[in-house]
Amino acid sequence: MKRLLSLLLIIYYSALLNAQPITGFTEKNAEIQRALEKQFLAIPNALNNKRYLLKLTEEPHIAGSPQSKAVAEYILSKYRAWGLDAKLVEYWAYLPYPQLVKIALLEPDTLKFKLQEPSWRFDKDSYDKRAVMPFNAYSPSGNVTAQVVYVNRGLPEDYEKLEELGIDIGGKIALVRYGGSFRGVKAQVAEEHGAAGLIIYSDPADDGYMRGDIYPYGPLRPSQAIQRGSLQYLFKYPGDPLTPGWAAHKNARRLKPEEATNMPHIPTAPISYGEARRILQSLAGPEVPENSWQGGLPFRYHVGPGPAKIHMQLKMDYKIRPIYDVLVTIPGIEEPAKKVIVGNHHDAWVYGAVDPNSGTSVVLETGRALAQLLKNGWHPKRTIILAHWDAEEYGLIGSTEWVEEHREDLSQNAVIYINIDAAVSGQNFNANAVPSLDKFIQEVVKEITDPATGMTVFERWWKRLNPREYKRLGKVVPDTASTKVGRLGSGSDYTAFLHHVGVPSLMMNFGGRYGVYHSILDNFFWMKSWGDPTFKYHETMSKIVGLTVLRFAQADILPFDYAHYADTVVRHLNSLNKSLHKKFLSVPLDFTKVINKAQLWKQAADSLNQIISKNLMRGQISSTLNDRLMQIERTLLGARGLPGREWFKHRVYAPGFYTGYAAKPIPGVAEPAEQGNWRLAQQELEYFEKILEKVIQQTREAARGFKSANSQPKNQNK
C-alpha cells in the first residue's frame, strides 16, 4: 500500500502544473485519479490479447456444448490465477441444435444445395467437423414444398410492395436478404403474411464482393460462407423462451414451448449467396420494383412467384441445456453495494474471433490490469463486476437470466452497465449509449491514442464522421468538437440492463469491413489477417474499457449529463411529431404539453449540472446525490411495459418492433401512431407525460438535496 501511495504522490505532484479536470471529480481527487489512470494505462498489452484470442478460438463452442463450458472454465481459471474472486453461474435454457437442414430446388431444374461451408487449405479451423451446420436457431422443424417469392429484406413495406404488384405470398417460401432488420423480425413478418417457409441469404452487395476483396484475398464474405443466427423474437422478450421474467434455474417453473411468444412458427434456414443465386436466377414474374431490391449478383432480380420451386426439410433437436456465466467481483471499500458492471458474452456460433471473443479478450486484459492495481494496494470505491455471459447468440440468455434473478439489487445498486461484444473488427471507433453518457465517453476517448495515426481515438472518430469539416478547418479537430453517439435498441447483452431494469448502459467497438459475421471464417486466421493483425486495437479497447470502469468506480459525483438527455428527448418528440404529420393528412395528437415537459426537464437538469459543477470546484460532494442520479434513468421506466411487450419497460428507447436491432425513440407513442392506432397512441402520450413529470421531480429533488447536503463545507480526506 505504501509503495502505491508513494508512486501516486510522485505522479500527482509532477502533473499538478498541467492539471486537467475530469468530469465528476473534485480538483484534488482528479489528480489522484489521473495518477491511477496513468498507472493503469501502462499495463494492457497486445500480446496478451493475442494469446487469449488464440486460446478462446481453438474449438467451435456453441452455447450448451462441452466446448462452451470449457471456454467458461478457461476464463474462470485466468481470473483466479490473477487473484480475483471469480465463479461460474449455471442456468438451464431451451436451446435447439440442428439435426437436419436440407434445401433442394425442384423446378425448373433439380439441385440439392450445399449447406456446409467449404474448407481452405491454409485455414485449419475451416476443417473442424464439430462446427455446427448453418441454421437459424428457434426455427421449428418442418417439411415444406412451395414456389419461391423474392421479398427483398423482408420488411413490412416490402410485403406491401408485393401487394401493389398483385403477388400473394400465402403458402409460398419467402426468399429474403439479411439486413434492414433483425432476422427474427423477418421470420415474424413472413409468418404474418402467410408464408409457408423462409430462406435468408447474405447478398454480395451487403458484405461480399461488391464491398471489396472476399476471403481469402480480403475480409469480405465469399460465395459459400453462411450467416447463422437466432430467430428469437428479442423485440418481444429476450432470454430463455420458457422462463420470461424469472431465472432459468434447473428446476425452475417453465412454460410449455407452445406457450412461449418469442419463437417463430414457420421453417426458416440461412443459405449462402452462391446458392441463393441458383434460386434468384430461376425466378420469373416482374422485375424487382425498386433499385433497393436489386442486390449484387450479376443479373436482374425478379420477384416471382416461381417457376422456382423449393423443398425445405428441417429437423431440430430442442432440449433444456446447461449454460455457464462467469462472474468476477472486485469489492468496493466505500460503497460496496454499488456496482459498476462490464459484460461480454463468450459463446459463439463457431469460433467467434470477432463475435464475441475479441470482446472476451478485451475484458480479460482489463481484468488483468485491474488485478495488478489491486496487488499494488489500490481498491475501488465502488464494486466492479466483470461478467462473461453464455448463450447470447441464442437470445441474450445468460445476461437476461442473471438480470432477472438479481432484478431488485440491480435496480437499486447498478451504477452503469458497459457492454463489449464484437469489440474489434477494424480501426473505426463507434459508441452507443443512453444520452446521459454521450459526453462522458467522448471525454474518455480523448485520453487514448489511436495506434495507427497517433491522433487521439476521439480525433480520429470525429474526423471520420466529419470529413468535410475536418478539411475545412485545415485538418484540425476543434477543442469544442463533439461527435454522434448512437442509441441502444437490442441485439446484445445490454438489453436486460437498460430496457428491463433501467441501468444506464454503454457499448463500444472498433469496427471495420467484417464480412464473415456468424460464419466459420470468423476465426483467428481472419483476425490476424484483416481484423487487427498487431492486436493493438484490442489493447486500445482494453484501455478505453478500463478508464470507463475506473472513472465510474471512483467518481465523486457520477458523470451523468441529464441536460443532454432531456434535450435529446425534446428532439425525439419534435421529430416524431414532424414525421407523423408527413405520413398522415390528419394527426389527432397534440405534442405541445409533452414537449413542454421535456423542456422543463432540460431546465431542471441544467440547474443540477451547474450546482454539481460549482460544488465540485469547491471540493464539496454529497453521498446521497449519486443515488438520486442513478435513479433518474430508472424513472424513465414505466410500471407497465410497452403495448404488446410487457417485458420492455423503458419509455424513451426500445428495439423497434419491426427492426429488432435499431433503437426506436418514444416507442410507446411512436409505434401505435405509425400504425394509425390513435387511441392507444394518445394513452401512451399521456402516460409519457406522467413519466416526464416524475423525472422532473427527481431531477429537482437531486438539485435541492445537493444544496441542502452542502450547506456546510466538508473536508475531503482521500
Task: Give a verbal description of the structure.
This protein has 718 residues and is an alpha/beta fold. The protein is built from 23 helices and 16 strands. It has helices at residues 2-15, 27-41, 46-56, 66-81, 156-164, 183-192, 204-207, 273-280, 357-375, 392-395, 397-405, 407-413, 438-445, 457-465, 467-472, 494-501, 524-531, 536-554, 562-583, 592-617, 625-635, 667-674, 678-709, and strands at residues 85-107, 111-112, 136-137, 142-150, 173-177, 197-201, 229-230, 268-271, 309-330, 335-345, 382-389, 414-419, 428-433, 505-511, 653-655, 663-665. Strands 1, 2, 4, 5, 6, 8, 9, 10, 11, 12, 13 and 14 form a twelve-stranded mixed beta sheet that branches. The protein has a two-stranded parallel ribbon with strand order 3-7. Residues 9-18 and 712-718 have low confidence and may be disordered.
Oligomer: single chain
Secondary-structure-based class equals alpha/beta
The domain count comes to 3
Unreliably modeled segments: 9-18, 712-718
Number of strands: 16
The biggest beta sheet reads: 12 strands, mixed
Sum this structure up briefly:
This protein has 718 residues and is an alpha/beta fold.
Sequence-ordered SSE layout with sheet pairings:
Blueprint: H1 2-15, H2 27-41, H3 46-56, H4 66-81, E1 85-107, E2 111-112, E3 136-137, E4 142-150, H5 156-164, E5 173-177, H6 183-192, E6 197-201, H7 204-207, E7 229-230, E8 268-271, H8 273-280, E9 309-330, E10 335-345, H9 357-375, E11 382-389, H10 392-395, H11 397-405, H12 407-413, E12 414-419, E13 428-433, H13 438-445, H14 457-465, H15 467-472, H16 494-501, E14 505-511, H17 524-531, H18 536-554, H19 562-583, H20 592-617, H21 625-635, E15 653-655, E16 663-665, H22 667-674, H23 678-709
Parallel strand pairs: 3-7, 4-5, 5-6, 6-8, 10-11, 10-12, 12-14
Antiparallel strand pairs: 1-2, 1-9, 4-9, 9-11, 13-14, 15-16
Helix pairs in contact: 1-2, 2-18, 3-9, 9-18, 11-16, 19-20, 20-23, 21-23, 22-23
